[in-house]
UniProtKB/TrEMBL annotation:
Biological source species: Pedobacter yulinensis
Matches recorded under PROSITE patterns: IMP_1, IMP_2
Record family assignment: Belongs to the inositol monophosphatase superfamily.
Name recorded for this polypeptide: Inositol-1-monophosphatase
Keyword Metal-binding: yes
Amino acid sequence: MNYELICNKVIAVARLAGNFIRREAMLFDASRIEYKGLNDMVSYVDKTAEQKVVANLSKLLPEAGFITEENTVNISGENYTWIIDPLDGTTNFIHGIPTYAVSIALYEEDKPVVGVVYEINRGEMFYAYKGGAAYLNKKEIVVSQRDTLASSLLATGFPYYQFDKQPQYMNLFAQMMRECHGLRRIGSAATDLIYVACGRFEAFFEYNLQQWDFAAGAFIVQQAGGEVCNFSGGSDYFNTREILATNGRVTKEILKAIETHFGQ
C-alpha cells in the first residue's frame, strides 16, 4: 500500500468534513443537541460529518472496517480499520468555542499507518503516514526540545463522568501547576495531541478517553519524534484508556508524578 497516497486522499476527506462543520457553525441550531450520557453531547453536525467521512473513506478503501464515535457505521475489517472522530471538541462547538477538529486514523492489523487531524478554525492540517515524518500544512514538524518539567507547558482534560478518580486527578493538577510553565485544558484531545507533535505543548495526559479521541493524534506525535504511553508507562493506552503523550524528554518526570497520585 502507498501510505503517502492514502494519506493525501484522507486529507481531502478531512477538509471536506471540516468545511461542512465550519458552515454549520454559522447557523448552528442548539435545540437539536442530544445527550449520549452525563455531559456527553452530540449534534446533527457530528452525525452528518461522520456520514460524509464514512462515505468517502468507503470509496477509498472498500475492504476496511470502521470504528466511529457516533455509530453511524461500525463494521469489522480483516486487515484495515478506520478510526474516526468527526468532530472532536463537540462541547466547544456547541458553545461557540473555536477549537475542534476532525480526526481520522487508519490502522493496519492493529498498527497505525495513517493519521490526519484537521483543526478547523485555524485551518491547520496535521498528518503523518507510515514510513514518513509528521507534517503541518506540508511543513515537517517535530516535538519540542525542552527537557525539564519546569520549562514545559502541559495540556490535559477534565473528567466529565466516572468521577471516582477525580481527587487523585486534582492533586496531580495541583502538582503540575506548581512545577511547570502552565496547565491548559483546550477541550479537544485530538488538538492537544497535535500541539504536542508540533512543539506547542511538551506533554498531554488524560484518562477515560476513547480510541477515536487519540488514534490519529497519538500516531502523529510518534511520527514527530514523541512518545506515547499509558499512566504506567506501558504501550497499551488503547485498552487502559489512559494516555500520556510527550516530547520524549519529560516523560519520566510526569510518570513519576502520576505514580505518586494514582499509585501505579
